[in-house]
Design goal:
There is one protein chain. The chain is α+β, with helices and mostly antiparallel strands and about 160 residues long. The chain has helices at about 5-10, 20-25, 85-90, 110-120, 120-155, and strands spanning about 30-35, 40, 50-55, 60-65, 70-75, 80, 95-100, 100-110. The protein has one domain (about 5-155): Jelly Rolls (Sandwich), CATH 2.60.120. A four-stranded antiparallel beta sheet has the order 1-8-3-6.
Length: about 160
């Protein structure tokens, strides 16, 4: 495996601190994804059992309302996508659209369970990393929601 790929993946929030041997084990159980600009990785409300780490390119996170897509965020190489699916087994909460040509790795529940059976400590580290990343994103979303509520509650002075 290319050393640069290994180091890039270990530098991501989800896979940070994972040992080289475990990264190689995981990468032997993942699927490599290639998206062309304009292709969806997945669509809101799709069933899910995998998360992704974007290796190259940029994607937009979109929510659909009344037939129109609204952009929530952009994600770039090194960012993870769809982590909630490994924690709550729910449906996709948003759509992901490739803004450029992209490559990603798909880490599904089966690969995570194989890791659990092989190395509980490294499994726990990834679970903690996912929890930290979800917590960080929740804090950002809470702050954004709060700012919108404050803006909506402002009463103009006469």
């Amino acid at each position: 495996m290319a050393e640069s790929r290994l180091k890039m993946l270990q530098g991501t929030p989800i896979l940070g601190g994972v040992r080289d041997d475990i990264m190689e084990f995981l990468l032997s159980h993942v699927r490599n994804i290639t998206l062309k600009e304009g292709e969806f990785l997945f669509v809101e409300d799709d069933p899910c059992d995998a998360m992704y780490v974007l290796e190259t390119g940029q994607v937009a996170i979109l929510k659909r309302w009344k037939g129109i897509y609204y952009r929530l965020n952009y994600l770039d190489a090194g960012d993870s996508i769809g982590e909630m699916s490994l924690m709550d087994f729910g449906r996709r909460s948003a759509s992901v659209l490739a803004m450029t040509d992209c490559t990603a790795i798909e880490l599904n529940n089966d690969a995570i369970m194989k890791l659990y059976e092989r190395d509980l400590e490294q499994f726990a580290m990834i679970q903690m990393n996912i929890s930290r990343e979800l917590s960080r994103r929740l804090r950002v979303a809470d702050e954004s929601l709060f700012r919108e509520l404050i803006r909506a509650e402002q009463i103009p002075q006469h």
